[in-house]
Amino acid sequence: MTTETGHTPAPAAPAPTPRILNSEYVWITAFAGPLATGVIGMVIAGNWADRRGPVAPLYTAVAMFVVGLLVAGLAPSMEILVLGRFAQGLGSGGLMVALYVVVARVYPQELHPAIFAGFAAAWVIPSLIGPTIAGAVTELWSWHWVFLGVVILVLVALLMVIPALRGLANDGDASTPWAFGRLGWSVLAAVAVLALNLVGDIPGVGPVLAVVAVVVALIAVRPLVPRGTLRARRGLPSVILVRGVAAAAFFGAQVYLPYLLTDRYDLSPTLAGLSLTGGALAWSVSATVQGRMGTRLSSVTAVRLGTILVLAGILLTVATAGFRWDALMVAVAWVVAGVGMGLMSPRSSALTLAMSTPADQGFNSGAMTVADSFGSAMALAITGTLFTALAAADPFLGVFVLAAVVAFAAAVLAPRIRVAVAGEAGAAA
To answer: Which pTM was predicted?
Structure first.
């Protein structure tokens, strides 16, 4: 999240132009836009999958994602690139939900933790090599090929998935109604999340507008998740809530780690990035270990332990920022937090599917991914506003303390998770 550069006040000068009218706002929108439109894609894909099965929404989501890549890659201006990024968000959001429903329909429940461990590995590898490859492509050819080259990878990946989709066409309940009301709420939630990323730094009224956006976003997201989620009702609602809150804490803190290391410890961007690399590797290794443990580690226990480790990692980051400990402690802290996410994330996915029926796998998968995206987007926007507000004091300590409070909430709420299906009930005993 960027901060204000500031203007020198002068009585005769016109009022400063809000960022929404200049290129900085467009740049922020290019990053925040996909998070916002992804919520819409998740809701559409979830409803569609419950009605017709996951095949049609998956193919449509891939097509939308490819269209977004092509528009962004061929964009003659930043504004067109933003439109492409919006389309990418719609596609990626729908794709995630459709894939979760495919997992629910194709693989037996006892394999779900291992499958979601594979998802974690598939995320970590691109996060490690992606920035380097993107930089090389930009230098050798053009930034346009950073988007256009991905089209080939997406099509190859789709060809690999097609065999698993045979027999899943129309594997849904046609009596499930189209949830146009939820679609409307998802649009409102997306607009609120996008606004929250844009208005926080507007001089004078920014914080007020940010609070309004948070309230609107919370109201809009309520119909998109199981009833009782915002009240932490025991069972699936608590799984969804804990997942979103933990993601908010983790990503809300992570975005400022490299900035802390380069600004306060004068580390190079490469060395600062290693702190995130360690966390990503820890996430992947932890996810792999829990996947191999299967029912020897109950999903409920894994989620509870994961939230505690995320909290411990963020508290260690708070202590490092507050007491000016050695920079190495930041890397250690993020390894601890990464281990926690590696335990919590795959098992919360497995719990969500375990607590779902074929009639609501799409909705619940959509709710889970909405919680992920919504929690992360809200955290990034709020910590960005807080960072700006504390610029004259210690902004790093402020955002890490906020992340710790959010992580503490996740750890406190985790015991409210209860399992109501036979397989997981035995594993949780």
So the answer is: 0.84
Are the C-beta atoms of 341 and 120 separated by less than 8 Å?
no
Given this model, what pLDDT does residue 23 score?
Answer: 53
Ordered by start, the domain boundaries in the chain are 19-428
Q: How do residues 193-250 score in pLDDT, each as one tens digit?
A: 888 877 766 766 767 887 888 899 999 999 999 999 999 999 999 999 999 999 999 9
Which fold would CATH assign to domain 19-428?
A: Growth Hormone; Chain: A; (1.20.1250)
